[in-house]
Design goal:
The chain is built from 19 helices and 16 strands. The chain is of the alpha/beta class. Helix 17 runs parallel beside helix 19. The N terminus is likely disordered. It is globular, with a radius of gyration of 32 Å.
Length: about 450
Amino acid sequence: MQLIKSFMPKGWQKYSLSHNFRQLWRSRKQFLSFLFSVTFVTTLILHNAIPALLGNDRAIAQTKPQIKLLVPQLKQPVIPPSPPINQPVDKRQEIRGVWLTSNDFTMFSDRKQLGEALQQLKQLNFNTIYPVVWNSGYVMYPSTVAKDAGIQPFVYRGDRGQDIVADIIAQAHQNNLLVMPWFEFGFMAPPTSELAVTHPDWLTQERDGDKTSVTAAGEVAWLNPFHPEVQKFLTELVLEAVSNYDLDGIQFDDHTSLPKTFGYDRYTLNLYRQEMKEEAPADPNDSDWVRWRANKITAFMARLNKAVKQRKPNAIFSVSPNYYEFAYKQQLQDWLGWVRQNIVDELIVQVYRTDLDDFRSQVSRPEIVEVQNKISTGIGVLSGLRNSNVPMSRVYSQVITAQERGLGISFFYYKSLWGYGPESASDRQKEIQYLFRNPAPRLANTN
């Protein structure tokens, strides 16, 4: 009350509405002064009382328009606009993923089996799948790019004639799973594939002329990542998938690279000579030679990322390489540089180890710590192979180790989650359910 009195005009006590109304009406100047004072004080009381009563900024924002109506001449603070509905994807969301490999083809080509599998992944609180779409020199979807290149004499179809990739994406989205088609083979192709046979000039070689190497996928040839036609082909293949499907991202793994012993083909040697004014070193381990080739692959990935983002700005650009020292020195894959140059939105490092101490050492590397402060980062955990079962105790301890460091998980691969192993499928599922006992949904924008 004292606060109200302090703002009253002098002599306000003499105004009695019951006895002196006519006198008050005649004195318009004093009356208006009185009215302004009451309004101003009321405003101050509301301004200070409402935040205390409602206790949040949103309530303040909702009440201020009313105050503005009472006193339009008072200057109001600027309220930041609400974030747009299509705001950028959170760069550090937890990854709970699994790769769907060619070994899972029977499952994901059958609509009923696929639906049951994806529903089960949802119930186990997975949030991401990586279905293979580029394997052994062939794509898993109808491709004009592959057809025009003369490398795809057939088209993969599901049990009901469906587009397999479109069906995976549609059913996964129904189960709140993000889908990132996986270009597994990168620059690899079997030497007997139509790709290698039709385009021998696209292949690179070792210094002794050998054009193949032996990998986990068997004997493979390597497309020359420095050749413009190879770069154009792979870029168009990726953009075709990005444009034709409602995907959430795309993924490239440790094969979007080149073994250090390759790069001695005529095209690359001439390019090196032209740019460096000297012959390429005979030693594949020469640091300048390694750096030059690695930089070329980095430049290609930067252009590929830009092209993808132009087609679908919010598509997640994911990479799943080997640990950094091996990736760079042995495969010319400078993924740490890619992250530092903002080429990568998500990283999953393959750490397939049998020894827990070795696994712990790898997931604690400083480069992983650096990356996980910038983007979604996970660890690839081997859940089993057809000829090599992995006990659930090992899977469990590795997942816990990664989770303790704030890292996500992706399992290699779907069928081995509970299809292989010394334990029953139900027991393995219970263990995974406990590891992922709380939901961790991932958000993606539509473009």
